[in-house]
Amino acid sequence: MILPKVRDPRFITIRRGGTLTDADHHRLALWAATCAEHVLPYFEAEQPDDPRPRQAIAAARAWVRGEVEMMAARAAGGQAMGAARELKGAARFAAYAAGQAAVVAHVAAHELGAAAYAIKAVQAAAP
User: Fold this and answer.
1) What is the Rg, in whole angstroms, of the alpha carbon atoms belonging to the chain?
2) Domains identified in the chain, total number
3) For residue 68, which phi and psi values (nearest 5 degrees)?
C-alpha cells in the first residue's frame, strides 16, 4: 500500500477536523497533477488511444479551478486507475499516478500516492 493506514491531520481539511486549508488542498492537487504529467508519456507510449489518465489529470486541474465537483474528479481518477490494471511497468505506474492525482480532490493524502507512483514509473523505465 502506498498510503499510510493512519491519516495525518495535516492532510485532512479543516471542515473535517484537520488543519488543511482549501488553498493548500488545491496546491497539493496541482502538485500531484504535475507529478503525474511528468510520467504520462510512459502510459501514452503504450496506450496511445486511451485518454483516461490524461482526463484524470485534467479533472484534477478542473477541480482546483472549481469547474468540476469532487465526485467527478474522483470518478476520473478511478477510470485512470482502471486503465492501469492490465498493464505492467512504467505505463501501469503512470496511469496510477494520474488516478491518484485526480482523487486528491477527495482525500488530500493521495498526493503522496501520485508522487510515489510517478517515482515508481521512472524507476521502472530506467534501464
Assistant:
1) 14
2) 1
3) -135, 155
- Domain contains 55: yes
CA distance 125 to 90: 5
Report the C-alpha gap between 47 and 45 in whole angstroms. Answer: 6
- Alpha carbons 9 and 95: distance in angstroms, whole number: 27
pLDDT tens digits along 72-124: 999 999 999 999 999 999 999 999 999 999 999 998 888 889 999 999 999 99
**CA 24-27-28 angle, 5° bins:** 90
**How many residues appear in the chain?**
127
Query: Contact, 4 vs 111, CB < 8 A?
Result: no
Q: How many CA atoms lie within 13 A of 103 on its CB side?
A: 21
Range of the domain at 51: 22-125
Q: At what angle do helices 22-46 and 89-103 cross, to 10 degrees?
A: 160
Any domain includes 106: yes
Residue 82 CA, chain-centre distance (Å), reads 13
Specify the pTM.
Answer: 0.90
